[in-house]
């Protein structure tokens, strides 16, 4: 019975003689077992400094086990003699629960015949060394083919390895927080990130991505954790609407792609603070941009339209049944896949636009273009061309005759600020 975790030992007697505990949390292997030829059960604690380990008698010697935070991988074992508190953290929850239940049985002197106990041999260096949490691989030679990636990695960079797709072993690194796969030849992204529940930063710059699958954006793990996404220097012509469902996104970098539009629902990215879309083919921005409150925005080098001509129709187009259904599906965020709906209906749904009133519309709408000063939506604004312009055309859609007539009366009545 073994447990790998971090341990801090506090001596309860030291404060009574006015001394401070100086113990630091150390990577530790805890074991419960018997010495060969002995019947006494021990708790053994091995660290890199002390591989032979300190041993504590278990039977009638455990004063209390504090397990209130066991679901966070934390617990404290209060030993009677010597008077020490063993504070456990960063343990696997399930293993910790098992370990503590065996410890309790042992402390009460109950039979542990069915449990595999340790022989209390000194720990191997592999088991007590601090696990590797960062790894940078910058060439194919360094790429692990026959060995596994260290399982406790929190930061992983794999660059210049000509990766065509993401290695499935990477998607099983449960502790991964930052993943950088820039400078490869990735063409598609995997759709299952459910085994990397803490992933908050993904860098995919300088690859060959030409599509971001909606499924990538619709994963609940990424929707709840992803804060940084860099898709710069790829071949993207369109970003899926679903990218706006990545609700925690703070930084979005999409520089130097082939994008003609930003997603019309981009205003939904409520946490977005840093947006960079330099060197694309964007001619107008979607109206929902006005809902963003950014720190910085950089749209340099896009061919924004210079002359704006609006001609609004006198009459609003008739609303079709398909338009009605599509508006309802988007409004209520009804989930669908290509298997449920004919592909041309999916395309129709993908062409959603956002009216200034906040409602969705599709082809049964009228559009108009107006100028937006970028300083209305961001604190720090970069010019969009060499002339220093910071005004860009904003393409807006009107979803109903009411919205149309209100707009005609006062184009700024709907300005959401
Ligand atoms: Zn409207």
How would you portray this structure in words?
Among the domains are: 2-128, Ubiquitin carboxyl-terminal hydrolase 26/29/37, pleckstrin homology-like domain (PH-domain like); 134-282, Ribonuclease Inhibitor (Leucine-rich repeat, LRR (right-handed beta-alpha superhelix)), CATH 3.80.10. A nine-stranded parallel beta sheet has the order 8-9-10-11-12-13-14-16-20, with no helix packed on it. A hairpin with a 5-residue loop joins strand 17 and strand 18. The protein has seven helices and 21 strands. The model has no long low-confidence stretch (mean pLDDT 89). The chain starts with a strand and ends in an 8-residue tail after the last helix. The protein is α/β, with parallel strands linked by helices and 417 residues long. The structure holds zinc ion (ZN). Zinc ion binds next to loops. Zinc ion (ZN) binds at residues 355, 357, 359, 398-400, 403.
